[in-house]
């Protein structure tokens, strides 16, 4: 598979064409951003770790019947994926109050929610990825009602699969973000699943093992990402 033209460079990844029009190559970067790009930095080894971790989770989800864009990990920081027409909706599932949810609802961080909370955000850097609801999605024609129902159902299924998988590895899935896209008439889970897009806490100590260490200047960011991979890989 030949690496072709650079199509897009985002905050954490580069997307390249290949010699197959149905396949892209994703290269994970060490760059780190937070607060809609206002804070920037570099986390040594992050690209390799997020590539491995995302491939690991995509393998798991495919085995459990979740259709994803993932095809193959081809190098330390690259994977092949199916091409997607990205649906510009970020689907966030929250199990424990943290970050913006804790602030918005006046909850103490770490408060367990009685049921998972699903939120939608409009994927737009220019607008700062604002929170939206079903009516906004319909008004903007971002997804059909059936597609939105499928996104929510899949996100909650992913939540159940990951929580069950992570529990014996002493990782609490606090919350996470998913993105989806259309491929040949089918909706597939895309983007990545990593400490960049999930909050992982140690179930015994509550130690943060994710991007919050970068956001909040807690230090030990690379070590936290490596610890997640160590627990996943055994």
CATH level 1 class label of the largest domain: Alpha Beta
> So, the CATH homologous superfamily of the largest domain?
ATP-grasp fold, B domain
Structural class: alpha+beta
Helix content: 25-40%
CATH topology-level name of the largest domain: D-amino Acid Aminotransferase, Chain A, domain 1
What would you call the shape? globular
N- to C-terminal distance = 31 Å
Question: Total number of β-strand segments?
Answer: 13
Q: What is the ordering of alpha helices and beta strands? A: EEEEEHEEEHEEHHEEEHH
Q: Please, how many helices? A: 6
Biggest sheet, in brief? 6 strands, antiparallel
Q: State Rg.
A: 17 Å
β-sheet strand percentage: 35-45%
Mean pLDDT: 96
CATH architecture classification name of the largest domain: 2-Layer Sandwich
The tally of structural domains comes to 2
GO molecular function: ATP binding; phosphoribosylaminoimidazolesuccinocarboxamide synthase activity
GO biological process, one term: cobalamin biosynthetic process
EC number: 6.3.2.6
Domain SAICAR synthetase/ADE2 N-terminal: 6-231
């Amino acid at each position: 598979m030949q690496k072709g033209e650079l199509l897009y460079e985002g905050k954490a990844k580069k997307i390249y064409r290949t010699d197959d029009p149905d396949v892209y190559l994703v290269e994970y970067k060490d760059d780190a951003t937070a607060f809609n790009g206002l804070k920037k930095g570099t986390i040594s080894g992050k690209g390799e770790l997020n590539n491995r971790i995302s491939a690991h989770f995509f393998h798991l989800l495919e085995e459990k019947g979740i259709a994803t864009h993932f095809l193959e990990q081809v190098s330390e920081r690259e994977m092949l994926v199916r091409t997607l027409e990205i649906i510009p909706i970020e689907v966030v599932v929250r199990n424990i109050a943290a970050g913006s949810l804790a602030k918005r609802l006046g909850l103490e961080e770490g408060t367990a929610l009685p049921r998972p909370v699903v939120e939608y955000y409009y994927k737009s850097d220019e607008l700062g990825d604002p929170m939206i609801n079903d009516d906004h999605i319909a008004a903007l024609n971002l997804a059909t009602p059936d597609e939105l129902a499928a996104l929510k159902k899949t996100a909650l299924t992913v939540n159940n699969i990951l929580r069950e998988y992570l529990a014996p590895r002493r990782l609490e899935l606090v919350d996470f973000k998913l993105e989806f896209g259309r491929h040949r008439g089918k909706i597939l889970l895309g983007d990545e699943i990593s400490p960049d897009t999930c909050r992982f806490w140690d179930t015994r100590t509550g130690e943060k093992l994710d991007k919050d260490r970068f956001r909040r200047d807690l230090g030990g960011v690379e070590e936290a990402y490596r610890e997640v991979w160590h627990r996943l890989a055994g």
